[in-house]
Every structure is written in structure tokens, then in C-alpha cells.
Amino acid sequence: MKATEVFEKIDILICNAGAPYYERYDYEDWARIERIFSLNTFSCMYSYSKYLNHLKGRDGQLVFTISAMGEMALPGYALYAATKFAMKGFQQAIRIESPKNLSITCVYPVSTKTNFFEVGGAGHKVEQPFPVQTAEAVAKATIRGVERRRKQVYPCPVYLPSRFLMNVLPPVRSLYLRSQQRMLLRFLERKQNDEREA
């Protein structure tokens, strides 16, 4: 870790790696799959091991930015959601395995106003899934969660009630997912038109 050349001890390590592909997953491209898992999943797993070895029994705090899509996948984000579901499973296991000197906090942001969606659309306009929050709101919630040594942080106040509602009323979940599917179809149509005009 480059940081160990500057700091004698890293008190908090934040694993915030993550980028999507926004697409219909209907192709064969092993290298493309490997790239997204390397960034979103494998780098965080590797960082966990490196940080554990760096601490050498001293107290430390690890933060994983997972994503609300690590709990509910959306159309257009099949591979991204797969990487985040994998991270959710990974953190569940290491919580039990990890030594007592390490505290782990997982953050589950919803759609956030960054260039995340521009990256996912590869230059084509992508509509952001509802609800949308600011990066500042995520940062503030994460800091509060770290200070309180929370296991999970949900920065969007409507996320947990919405998740509960979708679990007890499956038709609400179906309606939401259908709206996301329509967004994907609009995106694919726009992308096809853009490529024709180029």
C-alpha cells in the first residue's frame, strides 16, 4: 500500500472502488466481466487482507462502500449488482472471521449525483434510478457511521422504509422494477440512435 510509505499506521481504510456498466447483459466477453469484478470486488477483498496484515493486531477500522444494488439488483446493472452482492457476502463472512481489533462498516448508498452514471453509459445519457442523493449526504452519513462504529450505514433516509415496503408488498417492488426496465429500454433506444447518427 502506497499509504504505508507516508503513514506509520492507517487508522481507517475506506474501500470505495466502484464503476458500472449500464447495458443489457447478453454478450460473451470474459475480459469485460473480469475488469468490473477486479475493480469492484477483488480490489476490496485484497485491501482487506493487506489492511489486516498492516495492523498487526492494532486497532483499525475498515469501510466498504457496497451500494443499495448489493441488496436489490436493477435492470441494466447485472454485472455491477453481481459485484456488490459478492461484496455483501464477503463482508458477512469476514465479520465472523476477523480479529477483534478490526471494526468493519458497510455503506449502502442509493443513486448518487456523481459521474458514476456517465461512466456506466459510456458517453450516452443515463437516467438515474430513484431515489437520488448527493455525494455530500453519503459522506456525512459515512462519517457519522464510522464515528459510531456502525456495522451498516444507509445514507438515504427513505431507503430502509422503501425496502421494507417492497418486501411486504411485492407488487410495489414489481412496479418499481418495471419502471427501471423501461428506463433501460429508453437508454438502449437512445444509444442505438446515437450510434446510427455518429
Average predicted local confidence, pLDDT:
93
Provide the domain count.
Answer: 1
CATH H-level superfamily title: NAD(P)-binding Rossmann-like Domain
* Shape type: globular
Briefly note the CATH topology name: Rossmann fold
Task: List key phrases describing it.
single chain; 198 residues; alpha/beta; Rossmann fold; four-stranded parallel β-sheet; two-stranded parallel ribbon; 6 strands; 11% strand
Q: Could you walk me through the main structural features you see in this protein, from its secondary elements to its overall organization?
A:
By secondary structure, this protein is of the alpha/beta class. The chain has one domain (2-197): NAD(P)-binding Rossmann-like Domain (Rossmann fold), CATH 3.40.50.720. Helices cover 52% and strands 11% of the residues. It has six helices and six strands. The termini are far apart. The relative contact order is 0.14.
